[in-house]
Design brief:
253 residues, alpha/beta, Spore Coat Polysaccharide Biosynthesis Protein SpsA, Chain A, 7-stranded mixed β-sheet, 13% strand, globular
Length: 253
Amino acid sequence: MLGCILQVRMGSTRLPGKVLKKLDDKYTVLDYCINQLKHCTLIDKIVIATTTLNQDNVIENFAKQHGIDYFRGNSQNVLDRYYQCAKYFSFTGIVRITSDAPLIDPIITDQVIQKFNELNYDYVCNTQPRTFPQGTETEVFSFSALEQIWKQAVLPSELEHVTPYFYTHKEDFTMFNVQNSNNLSNFRWCIDKENDLDLVRLLVKGIKKRPILTDDILKFLENQPNVMELNEDHIINEGYLKSLQEDKEFLQK
């Protein structure tokens, strides 16, 4: 079974509680993320993986209210949370999506999954190198590969961000990167900060069709290019870069 594990928590350092912030008068960031993923044709089950912290009780309540399967695990070691979740649901393959991507494109996600299914690789993504917009990141990997990195990973960045061990130990895995015909990596509609939230709210207000696809957003931006100026101050992979600094401190101990 191929399961999509959606990592969700309330304790974001840059924008606390962002997953339950409204994008329109009815739906939250998390609502949009799940509703977009439901249009994927190759995912067997969607699971919310949150933490055991009390502050994430609201995430469990959200899952129950919306009839979504959920799992609660380690708040710091997200790799362990993924492994335990995948093991609990007996997933043979895992699609990793983060909940700060409310406009995840189901067509792009299916494209990555299809390559994983066709090639029988350990790990397939669309970020190494990045040619798709930020906010459409999709990673797919086998349970056996996840179990391998779960046993071997030790660095803070590997535990917090789940998959870095794959691309720092490429020789140990069969891997493939899906690339877009045009490099769209300068576009961004994931949510880390308040100005990201402002931008995505404009997109969901201005685009009426659902699901919202990358092509819809690009067409919208052709007429309103200034919208992208709202979050020009972002740093790509800011959280991961912070973890790499923690790696240095860890190795010096």
